[in-house]
Design goal:
2 helices; rod-shaped; 67% helix; mainly alpha; single chain
Amino acid sequence: MKCFCDNSIAGILSINRNTINAYFNEFRVKILENSIKEHSKEFGVLEDKVF
């Protein structure tokens, strides 16, 4: 995934750009986990079937 953090955020916060990118990646993971959890509440969980 392309990084959407630029140097200006790192400069404003006085934090290394790689650290900022790591935080944003953690945010993405948490957003995805929450989205999956909310989606399964709305539509239920389907059985896993191997074909």
